[in-house]
Amino acid sequence: QVQLVESGGALVQPGGSLRLSCAASGFTFSSYRMSWYRQAPGKERELVAVISSAGGSTDYADSVKGRFTISRDNAENTVYLQMNSLKPEDTAVYYCNAVRLFTGYWGQGTQVTVSS
Fold it and tell me: Which of 3, 4, 29, 42 has the fewest C-beta atoms under 10 angstroms from its C-beta?
């Protein structure tokens, strides 16, 4: 069965850093575009970062540009999100997403809380 399992969420102070991981199994990871989304209470789920299947292209939401970096290791079937200079508005549940053509998968999410 397909699984996407996020980890690395934590409580961190403003200005701090976290590294999220998403471990994939049950599908051909290297064929899928991978993304990170986030959702705060009462807000819509929003796209944070995208990386192409081979890792050669990335895109970011304006709110995280210059602070977050998405990367992937296809040999490990894992996608990462390095988050630096964290702000309280980054507080959300972060979800891993995989897409190829008409097929998509979601992870269960990991909580990131940025609080002073």
Answer: 42
